[in-house]
Amino acid sequence: MSDLNALTRKLAALTAGDTVFEASGRVIFDGSDSAPVAAILREVDDTILERTLSFTAGKATINIIAAGRRMRGIESVSPHRDDPMIGQMLSREEPEGIQAVFDLLQDLCGDAQKMTVRSLAPEPFGNGGERGISALGLSDLWNIETEVVPKPPLEQFLTKNASVFSSLLHVRKGEVLSTSGDIAALQKIWSTQVQAFREAHNKTVKGEVDAQLICLDGAFDDGTSAAMALYEKDIALIAYEAEHFGTMQSSWQRIFA
Amino acid sequence: MVVDELDALRDKFKGCTAIAFADLSTQMILVTDSSSNLRREALDALCAEAALLLGAKGKPALAEKPSDLATVTSPTELRVFVRAATDPNDVLCCICGPSTDAAAFVANAGECLDRISSGD
How many Cβ atoms are within 10 Å of A156's Cβ, its own excluded? Predict the structure, then answer.
């Protein structure tokens, strides 16, 4: 990535306001975009001073030494592995080693649905004359796209909370963009209630608000709750279990507030 | 007193700007917390929104049956509407800041309303 692109991405990340921490680690991948190894390279690219970047994905932990936006090597992994590339400095002179590191990372976290990172003090690694390989160089060598095009806010919300939705009907200007689960009840709401509800609601709030999440607890006969998310020309109808109310609210607040 | 319950709920949640106890059958705000400075028009609008979202006269706003809890979250505020378990016409209408812990607030608002509605 170019320096200008990297700067733009970092500024966007700083202003995104949706950073999530779990068990003291910052969530850098949640299955919704890119790939775990691409997320690792983005973190390496963000690292100027030498640090140990400790990545956790499921039961695997990968400690990588990074500095100057370059990956020096894998310092250690957990659970323990006997792999010759652990503890080895990355070098363009050893393409087999570079590929072996990629294979190891893929094996450890390639199927991860979530990954966190912690930035720790650096551990002694290699000798001073070796610098490793830049994140940009590795993304070329590994043929990985590290750029992430930010999704519109409502799509971010729908993606991040997909697992807590029982069903979803996402519509833009009358065109169905995406669905999940059994949408029969949501389709009925869409065709018979949404327009009248929005007109009535806009009267009470004296005008239309750009972004709203309206939650109605237990609004379906089976006890499931209903929600309507509005953003610009998009409307998402959602069925969800009441226990996920807090999760949805905090996610909405992180993205929109 | 009802106002003491409303004040206690408001004091517990930083960013909560108004709490009103209303009667859905007449769509009237009966009591507000003592610090609320909402104008009459704003209170009427809040009550009308409660009636719409909670389904006045048994008609659901959306989906299949009237809710006992409704929330509207915008970038600038969180509005919460809760119906009492003992009397379906007793409701709390609340306006909070956008960063309020919504799950904690609705739980506390429900308990507050039940105390008011049952006269405890």
Answer: 19
Task: Tell me if A240 sits within 8 A of A169, measured CB to CB.
Answer: no
Tokens of A172: 């833009």
Whether chain B has a CB inside 8 Å of the CB on A16: the answer is no
Substitution target in B59, B62, B100 with the highest count of A β-carbons within 10 Å is B62
- Measured in whole angstroms, how far is the alpha carbon of residue A224 from the centre of its chain? 27
A 181-240 residues with CB < 8 A to B? 185, 189, 193-194, 197, 200-201, 203-206, 209-221, 225-226, 228
* Minimum CA–CA partner of B69 in chain A: A217
Q: Where are the domains of chain B?
A: 2-118
Instruction: Please list the residue range(s) of chain A that carry CATH number 3.30.450.30.
Output: 153-256
| Beta strands across the sheet bearing A25-29 | A21-22, A25-29, A115-120, A51-57, A60-67, A70-78, A133-134
Q: Calculate how close chain A gets to B88, using CA atoms only, in Å.
A: 15
Shortest Cα–Cα distance, B4 to chain A (Å): 27
Cross-chain residue pair A214–B53, CB shorter than 8 Å: yes
Q: Would the CB atoms of A212 and B72 count as touching at under 8 Å?
A: yes
CATH topology of domain A153-256: Beta-Lactamase (3.30.450)
Neighbours of A73 (CB within 10 A): 22
ipTM over 0.90? The verdict is yes
The amino acid at residue A115 is M
User: Looking at beta carbons, which residues of chain B come within 8 Å of A256?
Assistant: 73-75, 98
pLDDT tens for chain A, residues 1 to 257 = 456 666 666 666 655 556 778 888 899 988 766 789 999 999 999 999 999 999 999 999 999 999 999 999 999 999 999 999 999 999 999 999 999 999 999 999 998 989 999 999 998 888 767 789 999 999 999 999 888 777 889 999 998 899 999 999 999 998 999 999 999 999 999 999 999 999 999 988 876 677 999 999 999 999 999 999 999 999 999 999 999 999 999 999 989 88
Residue type at A27 in one-letter notation: V
Superfamily of domain B2-118: Dynein light chain 2a, cytoplasmic (3.30.450.30)
What pTM value is reported for the model? 0.72
